[in-house]
Amino acid sequence: MLNQEDAVYTFFSTHTINDIPHGNVVGPNLAPNPSFEEGDTTPVGWMYDTNTTGIYHWDTNYAHSGEKSIGILNLTNNSNSSYLSWSTLDFISVECAVYSYLFSVWFRFIEVPPECHFVMMRIHEYDNSHQIIGTTGVGFGGITNTEWIDFGTITHYDTTKYVKLEVGLWYDLNGEPDPMNELRFDDANFSIWTTAPNIPTITGKKHGHVRTSYDYTIVTTDPDQDNVQYFIEWGDNTTTMTDFFESGEEIVLNHTWDIKGTYQIKVRAHDEYGKNSDWATLEVTMPLSYTFPFIQFWMKFHERFPNAFPILCHFLGFNL
Fold first, then answer.
1. How confident is the model at residue 37 (pLDDT cuts 50, 70, 90)?
2. 224 HSE (CA, 13 A, CB side)
3. Domains assigned to the chain
4. What is the band of 307 on the pLDDT scale with cuts at 50, 70, 90?
């Protein structure tokens, strides 16, 4: 088990439930034995923290969907730990570059807990070699009833390849824990709840003039039909961030390049739950520039007064 200083927490002084509704998932449940029903002495796939003197047990009097729930009580203020918890044993594979995950669990306090008691959920993150690289956690205090907790944060999404889950009872070091206050958990769910948008398409002028505005059409779809916004790099050190649009809705943006050259436009879609698509690219070349108005004037002058051109050249000292 991790020490408390190894974790990153967000604790709330009052009961707060995230905006993401529990059960709103698009993938199978990856949590082992989610109802905690199976097992002889402890639930299959879960273990309890052995660094404390707390009591961990099954209970048949209080459950949500099954016949039993796991219980935690006898939280004491000691030098080893300020929490009791259940954790998954095995590593759960995740693909954070593509998916976001939602960790949901039903809980119930037996009797009203003191203010220093918090429901705790943590996600431990591991790299491809199963080395711990971080922990994120959430705690809810001031709870007097039965509720769900939804928690969907993975911090090291670019390097996290595996996770382990943890649920438990934590207390504030400045408070006095009640060893007889019990917390029950049931129906753990760890599932995909949003998928990254598909790579956008961008179409428009590939060759043109500098200092001329050109339109570019951008569109993508999101597998979960989430709204998306677009981040565009125009290749000339300028960028654009759009508002959110519906999945599949085409948008048109315009851009002007001031200097002749070849530029790579890059576009990435970002859904409303924080998942980014891969980059789409379009190479454009602006090799032409406006004809200088002074030259245009002399060309038209020569068309109207062809006989005057040799005389002007004579006065200007040019030999024809």
1. very high
2. 22
3. 4-194 (2.60.120.260), 201-288 (2.60.40.10)
4. low
